[in-house]
Amino acid sequence: TVNRLVDDHDVVINISNTDSNSSEVEIIGFEGNINAALSEIEDILYKNEEIEEILLVQPMQRNKLLENSGATVKVIQAEINNMIGSNGIGVLLVFEKRPKEDMHSKDLTKLAIKTSRMSMKEAKKLVQKHIDAFDSKVRQVDVEPSLIPAIIGKGGANINALRKECKGADVDVDKDTGVIKIFSDDDETKEVIVKAIEKIVAENQTTFVEVEKNVIGAIFGEVGKEMRNSIIDGMGVNIGIDPSDSKINLRGTVEKITEAAKVLEEFIADNFTSEFDVSPDDEALLFHGGSDSLLNRIEADHDVKANFRKQRHVLAIRGREENVNTAVEAVSKFFNGGDGFGVEKLKVPEGVLGIVIGKGGSNISKLEKDYEGINIHVHRNSNYLSIRGPVEKVNECRVDIITLMATSRVTELVPLSPGQHEILAQPDIMKKITNDINVNVTLSDASLKIRGVSTDVADTKAILMEHLTGEYEASIILEPSQFSKVSAAVRDPSHFERIRKATNASIRMDSTESAIIISGKRSSVKKAKTFLTGVLDFLLPSQFAKVKVPKPLVKSMNDPAAIAKISADSGSTVSFDRDLHCFQVQSSKPESVFQATEMLKARLSECEKLVVVVRLDASDLWLLPKIIGKGGETVKELQEESGCKFDISKEELLVAISGESEDAVSTAKASLDKIIE
Fold this sequence. Notes:
Blueprint (H helix, E strand, L loop, with lengths): L1 H8 L2 E8 L2 E7 L2 H17 L2 E8 L1 H26 L7 E4 L13 E8 H20 L1 E5 L5 H5 L4 H9 L4 E4 L5 E5 L3 H17 L1 E6 L5 H5 L4 H11 L2 E4 L5 E6 L1 H17 L1 E6 L5 H5 L6 H9 L2 E5 L4 E6 L1 H16 L4 E7 L2 H8 L4 H9 L4 E4 L5 E7 H17 L1 E7 L2 H7 L4 H5 L6 E4 L3 E7 H16 L2 E6 L2 H10 L4 H10 L2 E5 L4 E6 L1 H18 L4 E5 L5 H4 L2 H11 L2 E5 L4 E5 L3 H20 L1 E5 L7 H6 L4 H10 L2 E5 L4 E5 L3 H15 L1
């Protein structure tokens, strides 16, 4: 090239290397000749400058070009070099480097073509020709992305088998889009692969059957084993649960999944499932009676299957929907009552439980005999008693049991240490403990015996333990349904924490007793009770009420038999709270609470007519011994003459007179006034 330039332009050209990467050209001659030679040299340099251009290549083609150590790339390079001839500087094809984690990416990859500017057009054209030739040998099949796992097979088994069977072919699968690309030089080979894919697709069509969540266990459990075998083994259909737990997916040929769907739908119809919540206290009733148990009767009467799931405390009833619904109604009627069938639950104090049951269950048997058609069940691990049967008979039996509980006298022995005995042996201590409580107490060296009705015994014991331990404990007993509602509401500790901080009392929920337990100093417990009754008013609207009783009327109002009758007649739980001087009324039925409250107010009104309270000034304290008389002779004489009862409180400086008629009370007051005057 240098010699030609010298001859063509009549110049001298000297070339020297300035460093390893560059050279210097010196041109000597006439100015015009030099300019012409320089222009041609610059043109030669421009045309032979190495440049780079990029083509985008499909991942499958990239892999094909680079297989066998890049043999195909080398062939293309040689073909381009032969075309360029000795005038070019050669060509180099280089793929971009990818990180290891992107090796299986479906994105287009860059192929760099490096050659001289004058050779680039032909080189690029030839490379594109090879790319187009490859693309022409690629066949694309589009399938639903959900079918891709079936086409690939477990661990790639299906796709690898196709590659092995069809030598020289390559199959590229995009899991996200469902696009499958097949490369082969042979059209027949591609057709074989396409047919194999179409077969897999045909055998993996999907449909779904909607299902209730509570039926899934039956479908995939022992109950559904025969049905599943007929679908899987008999029809070759795959069955699985949708992640939403609301559909059963079926996979197979259209014909088979249609058939399987009908079988599954029929199974679901035969195994409609409904669940009924059963209180832990009531669980034993499901199995009571052996072969004639509730479970067996439900199954026989309604053609269903009943299974108790103890961990969740639910009775699952399975069968045809109409049968299940009637069975659930029957179970609900048994546990909750309805349609002339009554159910009542009573909390029986520990000390009275044996009296209510009777020796060997004799009293229960007598009640069941007296009230025909009823059944009485004492719940294990609790003191609850349930009565079931005709509504009228259940109510009558309930009255008897409540009256028995309220009026039966029980005895409780409280063991004492020598130190505790010494405390109780002090003068007036026992009188202070039993003040205004109708109980008999007997102190011995090792114990204290308390005898009276159960509520009075419990109150006396609480006051006794306060004297012995310094801690007073009281409770607010709730119905089971109310206890559950309150427990759920106070799971947030802050509800009770505010009351604890305000009163310094300890508060806890006792599920065994279905009660709120409050403990601490008696004054703190009283404050906490006041707060808690407010909380209960809010949480149990119209299910909880209080009737305040003036202290002088407590004895006449709190007659066990009379209160038992109000409780029985109204269907509410009525109890006297000595700490708050009020009757507490509670029931899950607002109408029962209202009725009991009105009955208590009516009784209070009557008691007010039969009680007169005479209060003395502090300066008249000296009159009390005169009213009492020596050895109580004067007050005893007043009581005998009037037929009324005189209750004298030195602490409050008052005399309360109660009798059976207004006239008797009026006469007794006149006698008292005479003494005072």
